[in-house]
């Protein structure tokens, strides 16, 4: 059902092609916006800094949405990232997008041009991320297991974690409130203010939450979008 639904323009006239927004497209849009925020913040940063910021976001997002989003959605994310967002980033730095720009930021890796530094630090593709979802769902390496479990739950502290984070992990039972997954040992975890300090949020535990770094980026992009354009995320899925 719905395969031949036609989109309409603002006057209600049929456009003759489908403009159905699926949940996975909405998630992909949100993700692309989060990548855009990072790219903007790295306009003058070295290429390797940008790649090192993008890779964990791409890896985390693909793993989390691997059951929701199709391979085609991942390919589309790669396409937008490479042919629009990163080209714009490169153009900003060199003044135009010439073959010199291409050669400077895209190097050959196994016969294909990849957005990479000449030292071999390269951007990963959404379509080629090894998916580790099923390992993660078991949660067998969760912060709440074994020794870490003992320290965080009994004491709210852990020798390898900052106290504030250990207490928050205890409060949130080891789960990221944005994506609902358990944190695992190699996740990048950041402390987020639910209500930003700039909007009067306090630095107290009732206003703090632990988030995966990529979930934090998604949340930030969402609030920026809200601030800039109003409730974009409330677009109905047709
Ligand atoms: Zn998360």
Characterise the protein shown here.
- This protein is mainly alpha-helical.
- It has two domains: 23-131, no CATH class; 137-229, DNA Binding (I), subunit A.
- Helix content is 47%, strand content 8%.
- The protein has helices spanning 23-41, 47-65, 71-94, 99-105, 133-138, 146-155, 163-171, 213-229; strands at residues 106-109, 112-115, 189-193, 208-212.
- The strands form two sheets. Strands 1-2 form a two-stranded antiparallel ribbon.
- Helix 1 packs antiparallel against helix 2, helix 1 (23-41) crosses helix 8 and helix 2 crosses helix 8.
- The radius of gyration is 20 Å and the shape is globular.
- The protein binds zinc ion.
- Zinc ion binds next to strand 4.
Between the first and last Cα atoms, what is the distance in angstroms? 12 Å
- Characterize the overall form: globular
Rg, alpha carbons? 20 Å
Hetero compounds? zinc ion
Helical run tally? 8
Order of helices and strands: HHHHEEHHHEEH
Please estimate the helix content.
Answer: 40-55%
- Please describe the biggest sheet, giving its number of strands, its sense, and whether it closes into a barrel: 2 strands, antiparallel
Oligomer designation: single chain
Please give the domain count. Answer: 2
Output the structural class.
Answer: mainly alpha
Q: What is the number of E strands?
A: 4
Low-confidence regions: 1-7, 133-141, 149-153, 230-238
Mean pLDDT level = 77
Proportion of residues in extended strands: 5-15%
The order of strands across the largest sheet is 1-2
């Amino acid at each position: 059902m719905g395969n031949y639904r036609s989109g309409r323009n603002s006057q209600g006239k049929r456009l003759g092609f489908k403009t159905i927004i699926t949940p996975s497209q909405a998630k992909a849009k949100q993700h692309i916006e989060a990548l855009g925020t990072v790219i903007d913040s790295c306009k003058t940063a070295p290429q390797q800094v940008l790649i090192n910021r993008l890779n964990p976001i791409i890896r985390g997002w693909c793993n989390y949405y691997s059951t929701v989003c199709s391979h085609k959605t991942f390919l589309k994310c790669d396409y937008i990232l490479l042919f629009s967002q990163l080209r714009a980033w490169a153009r900003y730095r060199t003044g135009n997008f010439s073959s010199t720009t291409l050669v400077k930021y895209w190097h050959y890796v196994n016969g294909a041009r990849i957005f990479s530094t000449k030292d071999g630090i390269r951007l990963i593709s959404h379509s080629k991320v090894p998916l580790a979802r099923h390992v993660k769902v078991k949660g067998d390496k969760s912060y709440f297991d074994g020794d870490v479990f003992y320290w965080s739950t009994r004491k709210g502290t852990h020798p390898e974690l900052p106290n504030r984070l250990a207490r928050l992990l205890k409060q949130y039972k080891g789960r990221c409130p944005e994506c609902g997954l358990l944190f695992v040992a190699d996740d990048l975890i950041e402390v987020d203010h639910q209500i930003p300090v700039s909007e009067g949020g306090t630095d107290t535990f009732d206003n703090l939450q632990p988030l995966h770094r990529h979930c934090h980026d998604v949340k930030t992009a969402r609030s920026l979008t809200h601030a800039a354009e109003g409730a974009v995320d409330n677009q109905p899925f047709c």
